[in-house]
Amino acid sequence: MNSAAQQETSRDFTMGARMTSVPERFAGKTVLVTGAGTGFGAEIAVRAAQEGARVAVHYRSSAAGAEKTVARIEDVGGEAFTVQGDIIVHADVIRMAEEVFGRFGGLDVLVNNVGDVAGEQMSWRDLTEESIDHVLAVDVKGTMLCVHEFGSRMLDQGHGAIVNIGSTVIVRGSARAPQYAAAKYGILGITKSYAQAFAPHVRVNTFAPGFIETETLLNRADWRSGRRDDMIAKTPMGRIPGPAEVAGTALFLATDDASHMTGVYLNADGGFNMIGA
Predict the structure, then answer these.
(1) How far apart are CA 236 and CA 185, in angstroms?
(2) Fewest CB within 10 A of the end CB: N or C in the chain?
(3) Which string of DSSP letters, residue by residue, matches the chain?
(4) What integer pLDDT is reported at residue 20 of this predicted model?
(5) Cβ(232)–Cβ(131) under 8 Å?
(6) What pLDDT, on a 0 to 100 scale, did the predictor assign at position 276?
(7) Under 8 Å CB-to-CB from 74, ≥6 apart: which residues?
(8) Is-contact 107 60, C-beta < 8 A?
(9) Cα separation of 12 and 244, whole Å?
(10) Whether 240 contacts 228, CB under 8 Å
(11) pLDDT averaged over consecutive 10-residue blocks of the chain (277 residues)?
(12) Catalytic one of 180, 185, 194, 265
């Protein structure tokens, strides 16, 4: 699909009952989304392609999911390929960076979407050392390795934008899974540190959604047993979005409109936390 045709195309994505025209903010740019085989990562990858980007779809073990995302991108006229690796293994991240930069000839945007929410844990009383180690490894170590390796290469090329997917859990904490809240706080430290280290050429920001109704969340025991209704009642916007609705919001931090934003924590939770001065 050529640029003119893309600009004339409106695509329906979940946003209540509204139809929204998708802008073309990433024409001619390259985007890597980690954990893009399912859920929020898949929607970010597809949205980036709808906006004109060539997309690298990362996965660790779900090759089928990643290929499905590639197929969705190709269905909207985009170009994509898969890249495999475990983000908590430094050698894997180095290999991924070399592969992506080699295939694209550079990289404009990295979205660090991979994270572990300890979704099977329903109470702080169920905390285990294994879960602490895993959540911190994925969310903190994995994010840091990706920012470090991809970001340093972006710095060498002279430009780039990194979006780390955080969470509004840092505002209130999590009685359910304290290790998850701690890990997401760690992402803020990574974001602010590398924002300083990479400035002014590479911007690093955190996008923090509230609850998003991915398939994983919809199947979670607490969500099915009343928490969903409670959250909706406490959210000024009166609903919980699907992942497609906030995919474009996450990508905003990588656009030229956000060119003077770095080290930022941007939340989108329907007003639940009312963060501000």
Answers:
(1) 25
(2) C
(3) --HHHHHH--B---BTB--BPPP-TTTT-EEEETT-SSHHHHHHHHHHHHTT-EEEEEESS-HHHHHHHHHHHHHTT-EEEEEE--TTSHHHHHHHHHHHHHHHSS-SEEEE------TT--SGGG--HHHHHHHHIIIIIIHHHHHHHHHHHHHHHT-EEEEEE--THHHH--SS-HHHHHHHHHHHHHHHHHHHHHTTTEEEEEEEE-----HHHHT-HHIIIIIHHHHHHH-TT-S---HHHHHHHHHHTTSGGGTT--S-EEEESTTSS----
(4) 61
(5) no
(6) 67
(7) 80
(8) no
(9) 10
(10) yes
(11) 36 39 94 96 98 98 97 97 98 98 98 92 94 97 98 98 96 94 97 98 96 84 86 91 94 98 96 80
(12) 180
- Cα separation, 65 vs 155, in Å, equals 31
- Chain centroid offset of residue 153 CA: 20
Q: Is 194 a catalytic residue?
A: no
- Cα–Cα distance, 117 to 181 (Å, whole number): 9
**Of 216, 167, 190, 203, residue with least CA distance to 62:** 216
Position 92, amino acid = D
What pLDDT, on a 0 to 100 scale, did the predictor assign at position 216? 82
Distances from the Cα of 120 to the Cα of 132, 137, 141, 177, 222, angstroms: 13, 17, 21, 10, 10
Sheet containing strand 160-165, strands side by side: 79-84, 54-59, 30-33, 109-112, 160-165, 202-209, 265-268
**CA angle, 28 as apex, 4 and 25 as ends, to 5°?**
70
Radius of gyration of the chain (CA): 18
